[in-house]
Design goal:
This protein has seven helices and two strands, in the order H-H-H-H-H-E-E-H-H. Helices cover 56% and strands 3% of the residues. Helix 2 crosses helix 6. With 144 residues, the chain is mainly alpha-helical. The chain has a two-stranded antiparallel sheet.
Length: 144
């Protein structure tokens, strides 16, 4: 997957807003950024697909059997993951969470925090990582 395949943030957020069956656990780019930040800083997994696919409501075999849109969504999450990972581990002083913007122009940290919290809760409840991210508690705490 490369960045050329990835969706813009606006297109990704529009996709998250309408995707169902299964729906993504996050519905905004800010919440996705929070979740991915927790995944990058939390327990390491051999294969990022173990959390990326359930997070976005994609099948585990998305890379071999997914649609072009599925591939673009996966590439988008991979791009966000790589950006956060590179920033935190190579230039940590440059890291800044991607908070949402309020209609009044101020920042709204709630979606980012909800995404971060969802990742923490899902790993602590499951004990074995992100393999069963579809728990109702996790899904509910990401709604913005």
């Amino acid at each position: 997957m490369n960045d050329d395949m990835a969706l813009s943030d606006e297109a990704l957020e529009a996709w998250m807003a309408v995707k169902t069956n299964p729906r993504p656990l996050v519905r905004t780019v800010s919440a996705l950024d929070g979740f991915v930040t927790a995944a990058v800083t939390g327990p390491r997994f051999a294969d990022p697909q173990d959390w990326m696919c359930p997070l976005m409501g994609l099948p585990r075999d998305v890379l071999t059997k997914g649609s072009a849109t599925d591939h673009a969504v996966f590439a988008s999450v991979a791009r966000i993951h790589n950006r956060i990972n590179e920033t935190l581990f190579d230039r940590s002083q440059d890291y800044a969470p991607r908070f949402a913007t309020k209609p009044s122009g101020g920042i709204d940290p709630r979606p980012w925090c909800q995404g971060f919290y969802a990742a923490i809760i899902s790993t602590s409840k499951n004990g074995n990582g992100y393999s069963t991210l579809t728990t109702p508690t996790t899904a509910c705490c990401c709604r913005s």
